[in-house]
TrEMBL record:
This is Calpain catalytic domain-containing protein. GO terms for molecular function: calcium-dependent cysteine-type endopeptidase activity. One of its GO terms (cellular component) is cytoplasm. The keyword Protease applies. Coiled coil: none annotated. It comes from Brassicogethes aeneus. Keywords: Hydrolase, Protease, Thiol protease. Residues 605-627, 653-665 have a biased composition (Low complexity). PANTHER family: CALPAIN (PTHR10183), CALPAIN-A-RELATED (PTHR10183:SF433). PROSITE patterns: CALPAIN_CAT (PS50203), THIOL_PROTEASE_CYS (PS00139). CDD domains: Calpain_III, CysPc. One of its GO terms (biological process) is proteolysis.
């Protein structure tokens, strides 16, 4: 039986999730959920054409640097046992299906994703009738690719899935990644049989998804994602395969760019809020681009206007791709040097572009040499793509999402001296079951100990570090988008990490008394209703227990837990408790409870619930005091010797000031945040050019 070519699964993993100071307690502010929220309105802006394809960036992806364990990395067919997807028939093998169709002289019709309304929507019927047509019924000469592929092949249609399209546009920048997702063993040649296939990473496996080429149309035009070339169909078929993966086209309405980037790479995404970004953010972005990381960004949505346009030509609540990051040489009468620029793209692919400094035909470009313009591929077209200074980017955008292909690509050490490190990875699949293993967060002490528990032993410190070990924990919910048709949304999830100074003296799994009298040493920045929550920690050598949980008890769902470390670690599943408390006695005080309220995105495009975002106290994971907070806990806070988060100060870095003195809060509080970025030159009125560059290089 044919099986897709084996690609080292570890090659597509990455990790550099949030460092504490990079993400506020209420991590989800809604900026990351993109899409028009309705998805079925005809948007004339989406049908404007873009210029011919431009030269593509074909960056070389780094060789694999991750050693993985616990779950076998493999490819799987849609519907195959272990793929996570059920089929009405046999597992769908692309080559086998194609050969059968060629032998019988028929065109393939997918029994798993029918050409009917159930594949289009699950809640609201479109206002018009869509006709399913094959490419040769739409144009005379259909092609999978026309003069190659590029980001300009990604034009948004009527569906509110700009979050997905921003990731697809990024995908076209890297050849090896692109053909991992879009195999090149298919097309409209003599082996055409109406069947195509695409590959997506899903919770530890690469799933090969087969689709037929019947696409929804209206008046002879594609309704959803399409190319600027009428006879090019790779992007439309890719969107259909992704819709099949999640059950329908409507299931793709509203989402976070990082979700799609992870499904294209198997990576762990980091997020930066511009108002709390680190001072070396451009170095991080530049290094990420050099390492072939996928990047997207967005602006805080206007709660009153859907996809409102700013005076500078940017769209609120909309996802953009970052397609290039560059230091550009400039020369003015007063200043000579380099300026950090970014190239962004709006998936609409039309004239809706930034109109400030460094926009198309702006006077700033006169100070760039023709050679430099040519080297960066500068063009001025109404194609949705534009340049802007990093300074203006910080001012006008709210959130940055980076999906790295290498786990160490953005560490401070690497930015300083370029060292590479091997990373170990452990992957576990788990489940929260009502009344069995769905214990809720630490607020619910009586049931918290029922949650799944994972024990990890850190025995070797990081290279160049005499005291601590790096641990990256990423908790991902499974299959929530694919069951949105049942009214299910993302759970509010997080995790806590507990130190076990005497691992042989505590039960496996840990019981209620342990959690009653022991404090967590680290935890996720917040409980949040996104698909994945992740964080990077620095911990002393020792044995720890990771407890993933939902915020409220008795909420059911499956999850994937990924744990990265620089050196070899021993990790095992400890199980979960369903029996009575064993009665162990512990002398250390109770841990601080989890925040009393989860973090929800405010109303954002894509139909996600509107819940308040609570003000922060300045310390990750703790909201300001609100009525009824903290919940009742027998030893918190008066009896606890640990620092009270509501009564600062304590040292900027507890481990530096007094190693071991603050075991509950390693690395808290973070260093003082950088000052808010200064407003750039991209407001409606432009300063004189000389003044602009003088201010820029002060």
């Amino acid at each position: 039986m044919y099986r897709p070519p084996a690609v080292p699964y570890s090659q597509y993993f990455n990790a550099y999730p949030q460092i504490h100071y990079q993400q506020p307690p209420c991590a989800s502010n809604g900026y990351g959920w993109h899409g028009n929220g309705y998805g079925w309105q005809l948007d004339p802006k989406a049908w404007n054409t873009a210029p011919p394809n431009t030269e593509q960036t074909d960056a070389v992806i780094e060789e694999p640097i991750i050693q993985s364990e616990k779950i076998e990395k493999q490819n799987a067919y849609y519907g195959e046992k272990g793929s996570g997807f059920r089929s009405r028939s046999e597992p769908q093998d692309f080559l086998q299906i194609r050969d059968q169709c060629l032998d019988s002289g028929t065109l393939y019709e997918d029994p798993e994703f029918l050409a009917e309304d159930s594949s289009l929507f699950f809640s609201k019927r479109p206002d018009r009738y869509y006709e399913w047509k094959r490419p040769h019924e739409i144009v005379d000469d259909p092609q999978l690719f026309v003069e190659g592929y590029s980001r300009f092949d990604v034009q948004q249609g009527e569906l509110g899935d700009c979050w997905l399209l921003a990731a697809v546009a990024n995908l076209t920048l890297y050849k090896r990644l692109f053909f991992q997702i879009v195999p090149d063993d298919q097309g409209f040649d003599d082996k055409y049989a109406g069947v195509f296939h695409f590959r997506f990473w899903q919770y530890g496996k690469w799933i090969d998804v087969v689709v037929d080429d019947r696409l929804p149309t209206y008046r002879g035009q594609l309704v959803f994602l399409h190319s600027t070339e009428d006879n090019e169909f790779w992007s439309a078929l890719l969107e259909k395969a992704y819709a099949k993966l999640h059950g329908s086209y409507e299931a793709l309405k509203g989402g976070s760019t990082c979700e799609a980037m992870e499904d294209f790479t198997g990576g762990v995404t980091e997020m930066y809020e511009m108002e709390n970004s680190p001072p070396n953010l451009f170095k991080i972005i530049h290094k990420a681009f050099e390492r072939s990381s996928l990047m997207g960004c967005s602006i805080e949505p206007d709660p009153n206007v859907l996809e409102a346009e700013t005076p500078e030509g940017l769209i609120r609540g909309h996802a953009y791709s970052i397609t290039r990051v560059q230091y550009v040489d400039i020369s003015t009468p007063n200043v000579t040097g380099k300026i950090p620029l970014l190239r962004l793209r709006n998936p609409w692919g039309n004239e809706a572009e930034w109109n400030g400094a460094w926009s198309d035909d702006s006077p700033e470009w006169r100070y760039i040499s023709e050679e430099e313009k040519q080297s960066i591929g500068l063009t001025f077209d109404n194609d949705g793509e534009f340049w802007m200074s990093f300074k203006d980017f910080q001012t006008h955008f709210s959130r940055l999402e980076i999906c790295n292909l290498n786990p160490d690509s953005l560490t401070e050490e690497e930015l300083r001296d370029g060292n590479k490190k091997q990373w170990e990875m452990n992957v576990f699949e788990g489940e929260w079951v009502r009344g069995v293993s769905a214990g809720g967060c630490r607020n619910f002490l009586d049931t918290f100990w029922h949650n799944p528990q994972y024990r990890v032993t850190l025995s070797e410190v990081d290279d160049g570090d005499d005291e601590s070990c790096t641990l990256i924990v990423a908790l991902m919910q499974k299959n929530r988008r694919s069951i949105r048709n049942t009214g299910v949304e993302e759970l509010t999830v997080g995790f806590a990490i507990y130190h076990l100074p005497y691992p042989d003296r505590v039960p496996k799994p840990l019981d209620m008394n342990f959690f009653k009298y022991n404090a967590s040493v680290a935890r996720s920045p917040s409980f949040i209703n996104l698909r994945e929550v992740s964080c990077r920690f620095k911990l002393p050598r020792g044995t720890y227990c990771i407890v993933p949980s939902t915020f409220d008890p008795n909420e059911e769902g499956e999850f994937l837990l990924r744990v990265f470390s620089e050196n070899k670690t021993d990790m095992e599943y400890d199980g979960h408790n369903v029996s009575q408390n064993r009665g162990y006695d512990y002398s250390t005080p109770a841990s601080a409870p989890a925040p009393s309220m989860p973090s929800y995105p405010p109303q954002a495009p894509g139909g996600y619930p509107s819940q308040p975002s609570y003000p922060t106290s300045g310390y990750p994971g703790y909201p300001t005091q609100t009525p009824g907070y903290p919940p009742q806990s027998p030893a918190y806070p008066p009896q606890s010797p640990y620092p009270n988060p509501y009564n600062p100060p304590y040292p900027t870095n507890p481990y530096q000031a007094n190693p071991g003195a603050y075991p509950q809060y390693p690395g808290y509080p973070p260093a003082q945040p950088p000052p808010p970025p200064q407003r750039g030159s991209g407001s409606g009125k432009k300063d004189p050019i000389t003044k602009f560059f003088n201010n820029l290089f002060k």
